């Protein structure tokens, strides 16, 4: 996908000269949180806010770097709101009322942001941390170890420990290491002992796991109470080429996380495209990458999971026909 042309540098610098509120997406991951921490170091006085909690990795990173992340954003903001690693405003709602918004993102598609939003969208980047690493020096700010370490951890996490990295990813990692981001510390920063609640949820999801074979591809699906992305990732680790994990709550809110093996991605499977099509049909929202994407909507989790599975089967059959 062709990236959206970046904003005028002078306009961007003027927006970033205001008081900054840095927003991470719902269940902010290591890439999102790492970018926010680095930008807060680059712009002293900036505040960081979650919008709907942090992932386990994001929470551990913030705690170990002793960075305060507010639980909810204010209703309004007089300066500039900077949204990191978010393709759609629904994924960081509620967006504070403000006169200036900057979005820095690497997902495949860019959603409908408020008029006048300054969008830095590079879908070819494997992580938003790669974009922020290039952006900070372009703004005339020197990369410091305090910025480099969380950014390196973000690159490491979002490339699947460099399994899905590009040559640019490695070039950025070299830049960050040279700036004082110690690679081993970046890895240790993400190490964590999973809490018993999470491990229990993963095991229950494994009990409910169903799998099928579509040609040479193995597809796995399951229902879980939470931790959808981790569940989908673990199903791929168990051997699935495509994994879908769905959850639903009493308010009728459904989330589906998907993951694919490297072989399926290389063959042409595109989970972001699939879930975005489902979101259009169901008045929901979706975003992500060919090998990892998420979906949110109102409805029945089993029905929506079945629809997503049907979409995957159709894509896999088309891959087989095109082989």
Strand content: 15-25%
The count of domains is: 2
- Spatial order of the strands forming the largest sheet: 6-7-8-9-11-10
Order of helices and strands: HEHEHEEEHHHHHEEHEEHHEEH
> How many separate helices?
12
| Second CATH tier, the architecture of the largest domain | Alpha-Beta Complex
Helix share of residues? 40-55%
Q: Largest sheet, if any?
A: 6 strands, mixed
Poorly predicted runs: none
Distance between the termini: 23 Å
Query: Mean pLDDT across all residues, rounded?
Result: 93
Q: Which structural category fits the helices and strands?
A: alpha/beta
The CATH class assignment of the largest domain is: Alpha Beta
Which word captures the global form? globular
- Please state the CA-atom Rg, rounded to the nearest Å: 19 Å
Number of DSSP E strands: 11
What's the CATH H-level superfamily name of the largest domain?
inorganic pyrophosphatase (n-terminal core)
Q: Kindly identify the CATH topology of the largest domain.
A: inorganic pyrophosphatase (n-terminal core)
């Amino acid at each position: 996908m062709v990236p959206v042309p970046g904003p005028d540098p002078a306009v961007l610098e003027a927006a970033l000269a205001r008081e900054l509120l840095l927003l991470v997406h719902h269940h902010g991951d290591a890439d999102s949180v790492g970018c926010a921490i680095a930008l807060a170091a680059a712009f002293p006085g900036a505040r960081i806010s979650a919008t709907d909690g942090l992932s386990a990795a994001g929470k551990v990173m913030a705690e170990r770097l002793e960075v305060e992340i507010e639980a909810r954003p204010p209703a309004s903001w007089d300066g500039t709101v900077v949204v990191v690693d978010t393709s759609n405003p629904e994924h960081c709602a509620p967006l504070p009322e403000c006169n200036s918004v900057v979005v820095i993102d690497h997902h495949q598609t860019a959603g409908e942001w408020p008029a006048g939003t300054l969008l830095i969208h590079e879908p070819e980047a494997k992580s938003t941390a790669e974009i922020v690493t290039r952006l900070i020096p372009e703004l005339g700010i020197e990369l410091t170890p305090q910025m480099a370490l969380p950014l390196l951890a973000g690159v490491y996490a979002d490339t699947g420990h460099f399994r899905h990295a590009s040559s640019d990813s490695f070039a950025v990692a070299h830049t960050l290491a040279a700036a004082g981001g110690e690679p081993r510390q970046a890895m240790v920063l993400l190490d964590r002992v999973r809490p018993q609640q999470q491990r229990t949820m993963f095991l229950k999801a494994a009990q409910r796991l169903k799998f099928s074979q579509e040609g040479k591809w193995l597809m796995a699906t399951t229902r879980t109470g939470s931790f959808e992305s981790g569940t989908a990732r673990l199903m791929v680790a168990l051997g699935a080429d495509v994994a879908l994990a769905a959850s639903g709550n009493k308010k009728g809110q459904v989330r589906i996380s998907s993951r694919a093996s490297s072989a399926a991605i290389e063959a042409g499977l595109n989970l972001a495209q699939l879930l975005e099509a489902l979101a259009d049909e169901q008045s929901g929202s979706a975003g992500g990458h060919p090998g990892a994407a998420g979906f949110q909507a109102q409805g029945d989790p089993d029905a929506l999971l079945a629809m997503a599975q049907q979409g995957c089967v159709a894509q896999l059959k088309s891959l087989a026909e095109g082989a």
